[in-house]
Design brief:
- By secondary structure, this protein is mostly helical.
- It has one domain.
- Helices cover 90% and strands 0% of the residues.
- Helix 1 packs antiparallel against helix 4, helix 2 runs antiparallel to helix 3 and helix 2 packs parallel to helix 4.
- Keywords: Membrane, Transmembrane, Transmembrane helix.
- This is Putative product.
Length: 87
């Protein structure tokens, strides 16, 4: 389920950025790679650490004003934190 969520996240990000200008597309693809690293990192650290990481990353995305990417990050944040809490 988690891998499927990452796949949908990447597809939506690509589809959204194709409608945008090309330089911002490549910039957002780099952000997508960073978000995937954060998700994997959050699953490997403690609950409080992952919560802190995702709070910082969510603030970072808010200031970039990328609303679709931000909302998808919030969904993956909730899933990753809940999953990490169960471990």
């Amino acid at each position: 389920v988690f891998v499927l969520l990452l796949f949908v996240h990447s597809i939506l990000l690509v589809a959204w950025n194709i409608k945008s200008n090309l330089p911002y597309f490549w910039y957002s693809m780099n952000l997508s790679k960073i978000s995937s690293i954060y998700i994997v990192l959050a699953l490997s650290v403690s609950y409080l650490s992952s919560l802190f990481i995702y709070m910082m990353f969510s603030v970072f995305l808010y200031f970039l004003r990328s609303s679709i990417f931000f909302s998808i990050s919030c969904v993956t944040h909730d899933f990753a934190v809940d999953f990490n809490f169960l471990i």
